[in-house]
Amino acid sequence: MHYDPIKRSLGNVFNRTPWLRRLFYNLLDLLLLRTWHVHRELRQWAQGRRDQPQNILDAGAGYGQYTYWLSGLSEKWQILAVDVKDEQVADSNNFFRQIGRRNVQFAVQDLVLYQQPNSFDLALSIDVMEHILEDVEVMTNLHASLKDGGMLIISTPSDQGGSDVHGADDASFIEEHVRDGYNIDEIQQKLRTAGFDRIEAKYSYGLPGQISWRLSMKWPILMLGMSKAFFILLPFYYLVTFPICLVLNWLDSTSRHDSGTGLIVKAWK
């Protein structure tokens, strides 16, 4: 399944007005389980920092939903959000100007090449590494770009069924992925190679999360891939599944998992 065309279609719908884009971000925050996990880690990081100037890098910003959420926590935080897609960067800059978030800038950058030494207190790489073959180079650049004591947070599929791959004959559900998922020890070793010395890694998307992902993401994406007419039925579909997914997301994000199809990794310089 090629995910980018569906993402572009969603963007075309929700980019029409700032109000629709805000609504889109709020829906993503509720539906995407990774967001529940990432927000939980970011809230911990933000404790005691909201009144302090902080420089943040959103590395592979995509739609910009994490930049939007973070920029709403403190006007003192300066956020640079980078992505390789020119149109998406231009749309995001326009949106953040429209809503008056002056502490945000989007820029076109290739993470394999981008490095801004000793500049950031926090870097995010949310569902990015599985799209980049040269992942150690990216990790090395992020390490160099962090200040001493700065933190990197990564969300990515694991090798325990991430990308919906459960056997040697399975193909990744998202065809843009260059790897199906990381072994938890492998990603920690790659971060050490990149220069990080303190690393914490844990599984996300345990059993509750896997059920939620199928209900909230996999099946709707498959249906949208078959026909854009499903956009009309989407609100009715979520009217039924949305409450179930909320409960499952809460269960997954508040539980410790011995295994899971996702990984949440934190690393400090």
TrEMBL record:
A molecular-function term among this protein's GO annotations: methyltransferase activity
Pfam family, one: Methyltransf_23
Keyword set, alphabetical order: Membrane, Methyltransferase, Transferase, Transmembrane, Transmembrane helix
BP-aspect Gene Ontology terms: methylation
Entry-linked Gene3D superfamilies: Vaccinia Virus protein VP39
Transmembrane segments: 229-251
InterPro entries: SAM-dependent_MTases_sf (IPR029063)
Protein name (record): Class I SAM-dependent methyltransferase
Organism name: Hymenobacter jeollabukensis
